[in-house]
Each structure stands twice: as C-alpha cells, then as structure tokens.
Amino acid sequence: MINLEQQNELFKVLGEKLKKRIECYVIGGSAMMYHGMKPSTKDIDLVFDHEKDREEVEKILKNIGYKERETRVIYFGKKNTPLLLQRDEARFDLFLNKIISTVLSEGMKERVELIYEYDDLIVKVISPEDIIITKCATERAGDRKDAAEIIKKVTIKWDQVIEESIYQASVTPYIFPVFLFDFLEELKEDLKAEIPKKILDEIRKIGEDMMEEKLKKK
Amino acid sequence: MNQSIESILRILEGLNTIDLVAKKLNVKKNTAIKKLHELRKLGFVETFGGGKQPRLYRISRRKRLKIGNPGLYDVINKNSPIKLVKPYEHKIINEKLTIEEAIIRAIKSGEFRPILASLALFNKVRDWHRLYKFAKNENVRRKVGALYEVARTIIKVRKMDEKTRKLMLNAKNEKKYIIQGLRSKNFQDIEKKWKVFIPFNYADLERYNE
After folding, report:
1. Using the beta-carbon criterion (under 8 Å), do B94 and A118 form an inter-chain contact?
2. What is the count of residue pairs from A and B with beta carbons less than 8 Å apart?
3. CATH code of the domain made up of A2-217
C-alpha cells in the first residue's frame, strides 16, 4: 500500500526528472488521498491526455526500477486498460484518456478542485463526484467501499453525477446511467450509503429511457 | 471519527462566521470559539479574512491536507488589495512561488482579474533581474514592462532598474495582446511605447482606489 507521503515522494522524483511540463489527472484511491478521504491506496492511477506524455513518465519509471506488468492479471477482459508498472509494493496504472468503461471528459477536467505542481509534473485531482463515476463501472468490491466513503465524507453534487453519466453514455458504448443506478443501489442497500431516493429514481428513469431508446433502434 | 464530531461537522459544513456557528449549534459565542478551535486542531477548519474583513471559517467533513506551498491565487490574494475567487486549490511542492514568477503566471493566464490583481505585485518585486529572466523564458517581456508602467499610474511601485527596463523594451517577436482582443482607450501612450495592447481602462483600475 502507498500512503500520501510516499505518493508525494514518487511524484517529486517524477517531476524532477521530467524534461518538459506534463499534466496528468489523478483518479481513484490516489485522488481520494488528496481529498483526505483515504489513508493509503494499492496503486497510483494517472490519466494522460497525450501518448507522448505517458511515454515520458513510463521511461522515467522504468529508469528508476519499475517493471511492466501483464495487464490481464488485474484487468482481465476489460477494454481501455492502463499500462501497469510495478516496483516492490508500489504500482502505477497509467491510462490514456479512457479509464476502462469511462472517458476522461472535458467536464471532469473543468471540475478539478485541486492542482499540485511537482516541478514539471502537474497533478490534477478529479472531483469526488467524478471519482464515483470512474468507480461505478469496475465491478470491484474495493471501489464500492471507496464510493461509500466518499458519500459519507462529502456532500455530493448529484446533479453533476447524473449529468456526467448521461455524457458518458453519449461517448461510450454503454448505457452508463444503468451502471450508475446498479452501483448506487448496491451502495445504499449493502453499505448503507446515504443516497436520496429521489436521486436513485431519477437515475433509474434516465437509464430506463435510454434502454428503451436503444431497443427501439434495434 | 468520534460520532459527535461527525454530526457537528454535518451541521457546520460550509462557510461560517463565529456568530453563525453559535447559532447553528445553539451555543454561546465562547463555546462556539472553543468548538472551532477543537475542529481546527483536527484539521477540519480553514480560516479566511480577518483585519478589516469578517473572519470566515470554512468547515469541511474532510481533513484539509497541508502539503505544498501557496499557488498563484494565494500569492495574489496575499499581496493584492483586489482579491480573487480561487477556481481550484493550487499548491506547489518543493518550491515557493516568488512574486516575480507570480506576475508572469498571472500574465500567462490571459485572464482579466488575475492580471488586474497582479499589478499590485510589482510593488513587492525584490529582484528585477529575476522578473526579467522569467519574462524572457515565457516571451512576455514587453507585456511585463507595459503592465509595470500601468501599475505605476495607480499605485506606489518600486522603480525598475534601467538595465532591466531597456532589456524588456528591446524584446522582439512577442505577441501584442495581453488578453486576446482587448485594447485600452486610456493607455495608448503605454501601448505605443511597449507595442502591446493593455486590457485595462482607468475605470478598471478604480478598484485599487476603493
């Protein structure tokens, strides 16, 4: 597991070694640590806009001893998987624009609340609402716990979550609001997360309408 | 987290004054101050304002992390009478953002309010050569020189040394617009001298006299 201090040290090393300014987005458990919602994480998830930037970071990590790992071990059968680089207990998951079933959207970029500069490495932390979005289509138990923790610690702007799920449905092959509804209902039922019924009803309605629309097209 | 603290955080989440905290918790002002002190020690409170402005307390259910040094908006807000609303929290790890670099970053932002507010920073410049170096790296030397002269028309500003002023004035191949499409009706003499367009009029600078 990696804590915030260790993550900071790793970013400092990356920032010092980079030859040009690179921006990346931090998601998942790493983002939760910055938001003060989690003490440690299994992996550092970074999303890049440009392949060249990802390659640059990959090169530095390999130079300091990180080895590439087989993606299938962790992301079996998934699309848009990251490049996995591991050294001892620390693992970097380097994504390019897409995060499994989710796209890093312009809306997510605009909602960034925290920006940290480590010399030439600019780390942008996605909002708690968008962490929920990126976690809702993964089917990992840990992600459910994380999302429940976020809902406990923050007053979630549900309108943003709904709006983003609709956008995701427009740019991915998935009916995203259906994923979101299933995910949130499980959180409410199993983990007792405080999600207003009105919100769940609204997401269910959006999902049903989208499914109906899709069936009509077929 | 202790349950009572969690429920208090839920009640107080957001911006508060001491009086508001006392009202929300239905306690006396002294008790509210003690409670705020306790929450601040635990890392749930951020304080703003003070002096002539009301003291505000931003209370969050999340602990505020104390990593890094102040970013551009913090540096401007600390040194300028024109305050900016931060669109995001910006922290710089490893280094401290100097006044000189903050001026350059404000100009590079291409945004009206940060540039306007950053005029006050010219009075805090300690190292003109450093300002020149940053300006040269970002190719904004004439913009810096022009804005320095605008700042001198409205606020007390330290004098730029002659060598730096000449170097700035002789810069070539720099873009003319500080903010795309904005030109001044009142600072045409400065625009002509520095060959850049000033995005402000006298009325914009009035905010420095308020």
Report:
1. yes
2. 54
3. 3.30.460.40
